[in-house]
Design goal:
By secondary structure, the chain is mainly β.
Length: 850
């Protein structure tokens, strides 16, 4: 009996101990220390000495769970994944781990194995810069043009697989915020070791893998000998043309260190090389102030490349400093100033299609535009895996003036002036709680002011129209705050957001309240996301409330590393342009006025998008296809009428439907063995809407086809050939019933195209280059203009200086013509005499100090 009782007690104690130990569980997540990306299929092992006690792998969310039946205080947790350094740590009394694996090349017997020039993992693609660099590459922008999957246009805008990048990091730090052109055009291409493309990049580490993003950013990694020291590059160029003296001068000082980064630059030019475009902003994820304006500056956009016709006197200066205060925190201060004086001379004919006739307006414009911009901001950020804090104070002042003499159908002098000022503070906070929930808060508070004036022939016609002598002044105070709560404790991830905004302005005071519940469910390779935003817009003056409801659904399907697909659908009711509440009639230019009826402009919009992506880094092959369908019900439209030789545009509250369909495809392929890159972009858009012309309802459709092929080939290190082309065709139709043939007026499509071929030869100290650019533009279906330009350059490199000779715009032509369609009008530019005819055959000597 005693033996039976003793055995029962021993067995009970044994099983109790086993059951208690089985309840001890290790859990955690595994992510990429560089990008914050959650890692799937990482090996998680519990060791006692060299013996394995337990083993598992992380799931698609980077999470792991290991039950233990032995005491954990003497055990070791080891985590490993291909392409990363191994992680090892004593468990002790801990039960939850956040493992951050550091990327590392795969090494075998001291040989680094990399598949060609490009390799990648998940949404991070890396380019070995040494395999793409050429001796004549001066800046990062030049290097980017050679990378498969990346496109760079003439203005320096960088796209990855058809979408513009947000910003450019250098060694993981964002010195210039969203003004990435200042980095791509000032950082030496020869300093680059590696280029990283961070697709779908979540900039907030604590939200990586939790809140999706469509932003693509770029990170530049430098060679060791370019780090922790200052580089100074001056450049002076001088030349002449039939217009007179030409010059370019620039100097930049750059420092990239582990704890600080600096960029100081000064640039001056009158050759039309577009230096002020470095002030253009990319994608910024910080909320901003509203941008209300009644007048827009008149600029021309021609199929001819801008550097052929832009004749300006421009200046740029920028000073930027970043301090790394800790592993995750930094402080940066930025100052940016641009100034541009532009001369333009254009003769044109614009045809307006009305129900009963076609109205033609001839214009001979000679204008002089002056603009300047000053932007100052200070930005503090603490971006850690567990929390995020960012506060940015931003000040901007901008002034634009233009004087235009106009002849032809009208004889008038027009003077336009605009001044704008904004001051704002942005705050963003994210905190990960002990139960893995995440709390967010974002806010913006600011004041804005925009002063605009339009005069004709020395008197204020705008004041005459409004019956007072004051120019148009818009100003306001804006405040916005939003708080979110993310719950991750269940299979269905929940995200609830509430917010409010106050918009006090002299157009229409209105305030908003909104709530947005959102849900996410991950099923194997499929991710389902749905949100249902509800917004109320309050107009205190009218004691009226406008409710804006919506629904968004999105599915992401990651088939494998190479293939991704995304389908999204969105319905929403939107409040449109707030300037519709400006009820006084006003001139937008010397012959056009605008007035608004009383009402609230809203649109009910449906938007469907399908995006398919394929990438093969081993084959250097990238393909992206986007299909977009949009259908809207709009409660307002514009009516055009002509009275007393003045065009009157009136916003009428008449409901109608709009629709658009579009497809855009980008293909890029690199060939490692022959150093070749081939790419092409093809897009087609169809738009359908309606306007009122002279009291008659005018439906219309508008189509655009664009094809952009390009390639570069370097059979040897000394020679390279490149080609870039663009073909664009536009056509439209309009009438009482655009769906039935015979009742529609159709305009034959016209082609505008350009083809540019370049050749480069590099031999030790001597570089030679030549390029030819051909333009063909159809003015009418029976008449076209053909132009050919040539540029040649030669440079010789001394030990500390480079001497360069350029001859630009050879085979110059004295005039240039093109035609551009608009939905219910046709614009034909006849000549650009001053712009093109006098910026010809200029020679330039360039001295570059290295």
């Amino acid at each position: 009996m005693y033996r039976q009782i003793l055995c029962f007690i021993v067995l009970w104690a044994f099983f109790s101990s086993f059951r208690g130990n089985a309840q001890q569980t290790l859990s955690g997540t595994v992510n990429d220390a560089a990008t914050g990306q959650l890692l799937e299929a990482a090996n998680v092992v519990v060791l006692r000495g060299d013996r394995t006690v337990a083993f598992t792998i992380s799931n698609e969310k980077g999470e792991f769970l290991i039950p233990l039946n032995v005491p954990a205080d003497t055990l070791i947790l080891s985590v490993s994944s291909m392409g990363y350094e191994s992680f090892s740590e004593r468990i002790g009394d801990r039960s939850n781990f956040t493992v951050r694996l550091v990327p590392s090349p795969i090494r075998l017997k001291e040989v680094t194995i990399r598949p060609g020039r490009i390799w990648g993992r998940s949404d991070t693609i890396r380019y070995d810069a040494s395999k793409f660099l050429r001796e004549n590459d001066k800046t990062v922008e030049d290097l980017m043009r050679r990378l498969p999957g990346i496109q760079v246009d003439d203005d320096g805008k960088i796209q990855y697989r058809g979408k513009e990048i947000g910003t450019m990091y250098v060694e993981g730090l964002d010195l210039m915020d969203s003004r990435y052109k200042s980095v791509s055009r000032n950082l030496s291409a020869q300093s680059v070791k590696e280029v990283e493309v961070l697709d779908n990049h979540q900039r907030i580490k604590s939200l990586a893998g939790i809140i999706p993003t469509d932003i693509a950013d770029i990170n530049i990694k430098l060679k060791d000998n370019f780090k922790d020291k200052w580089t100074f590059k001056p450049k002076v160029s001088a030349g002449f043309s039939s217009e007179g003296f030409l010059y370019e001068a620039e100097a930049n000082a750059l420092q990239i260190a582990r704890k600080s980064q600096s960029l100081y630059a000064l640039k001056l030019s009158n050759t039309g090389n577009g230096i002020t475009k470095e002030g253009d902003k990319g994608i910024d994820d910080m909320p901003g102030l509203p941008d209300y304006r009644l007048l827009y500056s008149g600029t021309i956009s021609a199929p001819l490349k801008e550097n052929r016709w832009l004749f300006d006197d421009a200046a740029l200066t920028t000073a930027n400093r970043l301090y790394r205060l800790g592993e995750d925190s930094r402080l940066k201060m930025n100052a940016f100033y641009t100034q541009d004086h532009i001369k333009q001379e254009v003769n044109s004919v614009t045809s307006y299609f009305n129900p009963n006739d076609t109205l033609m307006i001839e214009e001979n414009k000679s204008s002089y535009q002056r603009g300047r911009l000053l932007n100052l901001f200070a930005d503090y950020e603490d971006n850690a895996v567990t929390h995020y804090l960012r506060n940015k104070l931003d000040f901007q002042f901008e002034e634009n003036r233009s004087n235009t003499g106009i002849g032809g159908s009208y004889h008038v002098s027009q003077y336009q002036r605009e001044e704008s000022l904004t001051l704002q503070d942005n705050l963003s906070v994210t905190r990960t709680l002990a139960n893995k929930d995440i709390w967010q808060m974002r806010s913006v508070l600011g004041y804005w002011r925009r002063w605009q004036q339009l005069k004709f022939n020395g008197y204020d016609r705008q004041a005459q129209l409004n019956g007072h002598d004051q120019p148009m002044l818009l100003e306001g105070l804006y405040a916005r705050a939003e708080s979110g709560w993310i719950i991750r404790r269940t299979e269905v991830r929940q995200h609830y957001t509430v917010g409010a905004s106050v918009d006090l302005n002299n157009l229409k005071n209105h305030h908003r309240l909104w709530v947005t519940p959102a849900y996410e469910y991950l099923f194997k390779s499929l991710t389902f996301r749905m949100s249902a935003p509800l917004q109320a817009v309050l107009f205190p003056g009218d004691k009226e409330v406008l409710y804006l409801a919506g629904l968004t659904f999105r599915t992401d399907y990651k088939i494998n590393y190479a293939w991704n697909a995304r389908l999204s659908a969105r319905y929403g009711k939107e409040l449109n342009d707030i300037t519709a509440f400006y009820l006084k009639p006003y001139f937008t230019d010397y012959r056009t006025t605008m007035e608004n009826e009383t009402g609230i402009p809203v649109t009910d919009k449906q938007l469907y998008t399908l995006r398919t992506e394929y990438k093969n880094t081993l084959q250097e092959f990238f393909v992206t296809a986007d299909l977009t369908v949009s259908r809207s019900r709009v409660n307002h439209t514009l009516e055009q009428s002509v009275r007393d030789n003045i065009f009157w545009w009136t916003r009428r509250y008449i409901p109608h439907r709009e629709s658009s369909y579009g497809i855009n495809t980008v293909v890029s392929k690199g060939f490692f063995d022959i150093n070749t890159k081939v790419s092409a972009e093809v897009s087609y858009w169809y738009n359908q809407s309606a306007q009122i012309r002279e009291g008659v309802w005018m439906p219309f459709s508008f189509r655009t086809l664009m094809i952009k092929p390009s390639f570069s080939i370097s059979l040897t290190r000394q020679a390279e050939m490149a080609y870039n082309g663009e073909l664009r065709r536009q056509w439209s139709s309009f009438g009482d019933n655009p769906d039935k043939s015979g009742q529609v007026a159709s305009l034959s499509g016209l082609w505008n195209m350009s083809h540019k071929g370049s050749f480069y030869y590099m031999q030790r100290r001597l570089d030679l280059s030549a390029s030819a650019e051909y333009f063909r533009n159809e003015i009418t279906p029976d008449h076209s203009v053909n132009l050919l330009f040539m540029d040649v350059a030669a440079s010789y490199k001394f030990p500390r200086m480079t001497l360069q000779l350029q001859l630009n715009n050879l085979l110059n032509h004295g005039d240039y013509s093109y035609t551009v369609y608009h939905p219910l009008s046709l614009y034909s530019s006849l000549e650009l005499l001053t712009l093109l005819g006098q910026k010809v055959k200029h020679k330039k000597l360039t001295f570059v100090k290295v």
